[in-house]
């Protein structure tokens, strides 16, 4: 999954590079920055930084990560928030993310983890900081193969628009059936898993003429899309897409199948048919499915916005 939102301690996450927000002289600014210096080994990281300062706002430089789980620490000076220069603030913050990811790719990093840059001591409102971060990351991974993690502590960081959250809540209220009230038919078997997904619904379809892979390739041709467009829009990595495409009998997870349906901009009915080929179905007894159904019904295929809402409801993201 190229872009993932996680709740974690950035000093403990295992990635090739983590990003540290610093001042212009590359010194720590408290909060997450202080924690990174401490976990890496304060004196070691400080000496490494002293060889590289000063840096300008939005510039990014790279050092060893020393005692951290990552290989590198990428240091960037995020902008200090001021209401009178909001457009400039957003542009500089956008560049902080882009420049940090450039440093990672230049050093052959396959994964990078960000805190929410400038949202602490530098005063950037979290809802605005999230929008800029998501925009920069989406733009960058469109042309680069790197896994990006946005590390946050709580759901409060994600302030989705009141209208969208209100519409989603209304849809859930109207359509969600408590998971303790499940109706079983002769053709359905519902079971719960303890890993990535709470529940999955399977239907037995012995007479399907085409495999999931064949159906996917046909839909890509019908939509006049490229493979790269599809797996990028689905927020899945190239290797997984290649496996699905080239192994005729390969069965993806339900979440992956849904992500591909969103990437292909399938309607709700088309998505149900598409999932059926892989022996999955959408259920009103699963909150995750109801949220997905809301977006399909409203033809909103922005997988990153979908993930923001899923995250705010403590659901697995695509």
From TrEMBL:
All residue ranges annotated as the Macro domain in the record: 1-169
InterPro entries: Cro/C1-type_HTH (IPR001387), Macro_dom (IPR002589)
Pfam families assigned to the protein according to its UniProt record, in alphabetical order: Macro
PROSITE patterns on file: MACRO
Name of the protein: Macro domain-containing protein
């Amino acid at each position: 999954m190229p872009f993932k939102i996680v709740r974690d301690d950035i000093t403990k996450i295992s990635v090739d590079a983590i990003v540290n927000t610093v001042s212009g002289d590359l010194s720590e600014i408290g909060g997450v920055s202080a924690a990174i210096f401490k976990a890496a080994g304060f004196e070691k990281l400080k000496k490494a930084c002293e060889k590289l300062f000063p840096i300008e706002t939005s510039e990014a430089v790279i050092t060893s990560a020393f005692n951290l789980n990552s290989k590198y620490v990428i240091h960037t000076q995020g902008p200090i928030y001021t209401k009178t220069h909001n457009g400039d603030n957003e542009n500089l913050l956008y560049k902080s993310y882009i420049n940090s990811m450039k440093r990672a790719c230049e050093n052959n990093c396959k994964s990078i983890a960000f805190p929410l840059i400038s949202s602490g001591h530098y005063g950037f409102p979290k809802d605005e900081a999230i929008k800029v971060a998501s925009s920069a990351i989406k733009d960058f991974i469109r042309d680069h193969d790197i896994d990006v993690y946005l590390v946050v502590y709580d759901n409060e960081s994600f302030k989705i628009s009141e209208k969208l959250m209100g519409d989603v809540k209304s849809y859930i209220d109207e359509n969600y059936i408590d998971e303790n009230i499940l109706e079983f038919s002769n053709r359905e078997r519902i079971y719960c898993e303890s890993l990535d997904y709470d529940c999955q619904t399977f239907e037995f379809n012995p007479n399907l003429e085409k495999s999931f892979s064949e159906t996917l390739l046909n839909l890509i041709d019908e939509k006049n899309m490229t493979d790269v467009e599809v797996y990028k829009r689905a927020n899945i990595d190239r290797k997984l897409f290649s496996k699905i495409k080239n192994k005729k009998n390969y069965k993806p997870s339900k979440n992956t199948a849904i992500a591909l349906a969103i990437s292909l901009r399938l309607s709700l009915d088309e998505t149900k048919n598409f999932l059926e080929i892989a022996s999955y179905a959408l259920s009103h007894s699963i909150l995750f499915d109801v949220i997905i159904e809301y977006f399909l019904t409203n033809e909103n295929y922005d997988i990153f916005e979908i993930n923001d809402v899923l995250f705010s409801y403590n659901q697995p993201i695509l």
